[in-house]
Each structure stands twice: as C-alpha cells, then as structure tokens.
Amino acid sequence: MRLFTWNVNGLESLLRKGYFADFVNRTSPDIICFQETKISRRKLARWSVATKDWNCFLSVCKTNEGYSGVATFCLSHFPLIKAEEGISGFLSAECLSWNPSRSWFCSQRETPNWRETTYSVGYHFEAREDIGLLTKLDKEGRCAIVEFPYFILFNVYVPFDSSDETFEYKYLFIQSLLKRIKMALESGKNVVLCGDFNCARERIDHCDPEGVIQNKPRNSSFESDPCRQLFNEICGCKGPLVDVFRYFHPERLDAYTCWNNQTGARKTNFGTRIDYILANRAFVESFVTDCDILSDIYGSDHCPVYIELRNVLPVSQDSLHVERLPPFCCRHFPDSLGSQQSLKDVMKVSINANCSKIMESGPHFVGAISFKRTAVTVRSSTVASQETERYSQEDKYGATLLSRKRTFDHSTCNEMDAFSNEEYYATVRDSENYLHSTKYQKAKEDWRKLFQNRQRVPLCTGHNEPCLLRVVKKKGPNLGRKFYVCGRPIGKGKEGRCKFFLWYDKQDTRY
After folding, report:
1. How far apart are CA 304 and CA 5, in angstroms?
2. Is 196 annotated as belonging to a binding site?
3. 124 labelled ligand-binding
4. Which of 213, 205, 308, 217 is nearest to 258 (CA)?
5. Single GO molecular-function term (predicted)?
6. What element of type H or E holds 155?
7. Is the pTM higher than 0.85?
C-alpha cells in the first residue's frame, strides 16, 4: 500500500498534458495527496474528479478562483470514517445541505460549523482571538483531513511567507496545526501529516542555506527562522511526529523535492526539500516499511514523495455505497452528480486530444473548397466558427486550397449553382489572404534572424559558452532592461551557472 504527496502546481494541467496518467501507471498509488490544485468548483464536472473507483476530498479556494487548493484521493474500497475541511473547524458545513433527503445529512435549517456536526474529525482547540485569520486561511483551501480506521491523514499546503502579512499567516497555520495534531495523538489516534510546508527543515535539505550561490544572503542564520523553528517542534527530536524520509535515509545528500523552473535548477539538482510525510513514531515503526522521493517524475516544479505501508486498511464492500461516505466527499457534490466515471477514463485526457481536433478540422476546410454538395449546406454560422481554426492550419492546407483553385475546370460548373458568387469569392479571398499573411510572417522572421545573427552573443567567462539574454522583471529602476548571463542552469560546481553578467547595449560595438 502506497501513500503519495505531490504539489502539482495545477491539477488541470496535470490531467490535460497526460502527466497524471503517467504517474498512476508508474506508481500504482492507493492514496494520493495533491497540493496547489488550482482547480475551481465549476471545473469539477468537466474533469470529473469524483470517479467511481476513487473517493476524492477536495478543498478549493473560496476567495480567489484558481489559487491554492488541496485534494486527497483514496481507493473507493478503503473504509472511511470522517472527513473535514480546514484546521479551525469553523468553516460552514455547506455540503450538509446539498442533499437533505438522505437521513444521515444534517437537518438543521441554518448551515452549521464543522465542529458542531457529528461528521467532524474533531479534536479541535478552543476559539481564540485570531480565529478570524485562521478561518480566512481555511477558505483558501489549505487543509483536508480524512480519518481512516487506523490513522488520521492531514493533507496541508502551508502558506509561503513573502511578506510580513503572509509570515503571520504561515506561523499561525503551523502553530494551529501543531496543536490539533497533539490533541489527536493524546486521544490515542495515529497521525500522518503530509504536504508542501514551504520550509526546509535543516541545512541538509537546502541547496544554498546561506544564499551565497543565489546572491541572496540571509539577514539571519538559517536555524533562526521562526517558522522553521516551529516546524521542527512538530518533527524534531522531541516533536510528536517523525520525518519519515530522514527516518529511513538520515544521511542522504542532495535529496530535494522542489526546483526553480525559471533557472533550470532541476537539471543540476539545485533545489530544496519542502515536501514531507510525517507520522508519529509508533505508527512508523509498526506500519511504514519505506519512504523515498521520486525525482524522475515530471509535471510540476515539485516531485512526488511516498511511503510504503503494510496493509492497514481492510477492504470493505460497505464503503462502496455513496450513502456511507462523509458529506465532504466529492461524490456528493452537485457539480459531479451524473458525471462520475472511472479513473481510466479521466487519464485518457491528454495534450494529444488537442492535436487531433486541429487535424480533424483540416479535411472539412479543404472539402468546402472542392464544392461538394454536402458542404454547401453548412450554415454561415458554422463557417464563421471554423474561421479561427482555418488560420491555424499549416502551409500545406493553404497550398492545397490554391492548387484546387487553379485546377478548377468546367466539370464542376454544374455544382457552382449551390454557391453564390459572393460566397465563392469570399472563400478564395480568405485562402489568398492566408497565404499572403503566411509569407509575410516568414519574411519577417527571416529578416529578424538576419539582423540578430549580425550581433554577436558574448561568451561567459566561466565556461566560454554563449550567454542567454534576459530581461529584468523586478520592479525598480532597471525594469525592462536586458542583460546577458551564463547559459547554464543555476547549480553548484563547474556544471552550474558561472557569475558572468553583462548589461545588453545596442550601441556596444564589441559584440
């Protein structure tokens, strides 16, 4: 039995490009915890995340569509007890009123809080003055809790501290998470905590703990970060949980789970380990047999982390009935009712589907110019809707259209009656305009390459290789200014990027 955690940086992109199918086929997961799904409720029916063979617990951002979000998938034959959204327990139990006809749904008129229902996982702390901030964080879709017979699974996406305000959110989130975990452990429950913590625990988990290579020196020591100290209270030497990866691989170096795609840091393995699976020591010693990082699986700027478990969840036929699932399950969402399918059907969605649609539009467009009587009956609205696809075809379609126009003979004159002269000349005019625009774009590209090649690209001093031209995107006096840097990805040693830097100047005759 395998449990995975993965920050996918957009679940829709993962499905559309086929990475999700590759991931499932290679790993055969039993439980998957996704972070940063960036999927909204209105897209649930399109992607059908509520599949028949998987149960999904999805927490979406309620304040900013397409932001944050976590999702927990588990095989449908695993028995479930309860499920809850958020850490505070003060979110409105909106899903309890979706289908009030079922007896096990809450019958209260007003929508209650999770902590007020029997479907809450429980073990809440008392209300505090900062409960408003914590509820605001919960509305961003940063936590989904599922209780299985032998353990409670926390799937979290910790905020990134880019400012003083977000630092306060992050510290409060980790602090509240620690309190709730301790309460669950004190009640005798096993706890598994996984997700993206946006924090590297120790120096061994960071490629550049002092910020020297990235030219971003820290104002304070690596260990003095308040959020890092609080995080280590959860899984440190005296913490309630264990870092499962370090439990099995205490001395492994260069074990990272996140890289900067803009600098190509994954090629040189210049990253950080900020994705974790934590569990209480008794559970690890009794049930966990292995833990590792799958850095060869792509689709995001993060990679999956998994633990191998003994079969702690027995198969239960009763769990197949939707009525026995917690109300928070996606199979109860009104958006998903009637659209549920198997996971294999979901995995068929890939980027190749878009290519097939483009190729299918070609024959219809060519057939319209061959003056077939079947094409004559196409309405003008349909022709207008295909106009954008017509211009997206390759040059071979334009050449085919022109050749058909030139080889037009009297044998087709009888079929011209179905076309008005206006429609005919409009179609021919469109094809000629398309060819003209294509030739213009090609000539423009040739001239651009000609002048670009006349200006020599400087070579970096560290590797004597051509540099890359970059643009300053950070706000300030140099915004929009171009500069040259080493063409290699950022990293350590000679294989990484050297410190070459040169401002781009059109008037500089040296290059």
Report:
1. 6
2. yes
3. no
4. 205
5. double-stranded DNA 3'-5' DNA exonuclease activity
6. strand 152-157
7. no
pLDDT digit string, tens, across residues 296-334: 999 999 999 999 998 776 665 454 455 678 888 887 776
- Say whether both 271 and 203 belong to one domain: yes
What pLDDT digit, counting tens, does each position of 290-301 carry? 999 999 999 999
**Annotated active-site residue in 19, 157, 306, 484:** 157
Nearest-angstrom CA–CA distance, 129 and 208 = 38
Count of domains forming the chain: 3
45 φ/ψ angles, rounded to the nearest 5 degrees:
-65, -35
Indicate whether 139 and 84 sit together in one domain.
Answer: yes
**Position 450 in a domain:** no
CA angle 265/269/274 to nearest 5° reads 90
- Is 196 catalytic? The answer is yes
What's the pLDDT score for residue 402?
A: 35
Backbone conformation region of residue 337, classed left if phi is above 0, alpha if psi is from -120 to 50, else beta:
beta
Judge whether 290 is annotated as a binding position: no
Q: For 273-327, give the DSSP string.
A: --EEEEE-HHHHHHHEEEEEE-TT--SSSB--EEEEE---S---GGGGSGGGS-T
Catalytic residue check, 436: no
Is 7 annotated as belonging to a binding site?
yes
Q: Are residues 88 and 186 in the same domain?
A: yes
Does residue 332 sit in the same domain as residue 475? Answer: no
Domain range for 116 is 2-347
Write out the two tokens for 455.
Answer: 């200006």
- Catalytic residue of the set 119, 205, 206, 302: 302
* CA-wise closest residue to 405 among 441, 452, 369: 369
Separation between Cα atoms, residue 264 and residue 470, nearest integer Å: 14
Pick from 237, 249, 241: nearest CA to 282: 241
Tell me the pairing of strands 143-147 and 82-85: antiparallel
Q: Is 360 annotated as a binding residue?
A: no
Residues 6+ apart with CB under 8 A from 428: 405
Residues 271 and 326 in one domain: yes
Q: Is 427 helix (H, G, I), strand (E, B) or coil?
A: helix
pLDDT, position 434: 59
Residue 352 located in a structural domain: no
Please list the ranges in the chain whose pLDDT falls under 50. Answer: 103-109, 317, 319-320, 350-420, 453, 509-511
Whether 150 sits among the annotated catalytic residues: the reply is no
One domain, residues 422 and 505: no
For 146, the 3-state DSSP assignment is: strand
pLDDT (0 to 100) of residue 282: 94
Q: What is the pLDDT of residue 361?
A: 40
